[in-house]
Write a structure and sequence with these properties.
Helix content: 10-25%
Low-confidence stretches: none
Number of domains: 1
Distance between the termini: 35 Å
Largest sheet: 4 strands, antiparallel
Bound molecules: zinc ion
Number of strands: 4
Shape: globular
Length: about 70
């Protein structure tokens, strides 16, 4: 179980999957690129997925180009 904190409404949301997009259920803020935390211990989790890393780099490049 994962937890993410929304920086807009400051609420926490939970999911059992690290895949796919993650939107805040309260305000709809896109939390997809926010860090994962363990829902029980609140420790930050470093999700080790090369495909996700590539996606994040692509999005970063997009921001630079825009
Ligand atoms: Zn929110």
């Amino acid at each position: 179980m994962y937890r993410k904190d929304c920086d807009k409404c400051l609420r926490s949301s939970y999911s059992s999957s690290e895949f796919g997009e993650w939107a805040c259920p309260i305000c709809g803020n896109d939390l997809t690129n926010h860090p994962f935390f363990d829902a029980i211990t609140f420790e930050r989790i470093h999700v080790n997925m090369s495909s996700k890393k590539l996606k994040m780099y692509k999005q970063k490049d997009k921001f630079v180009n825009d």
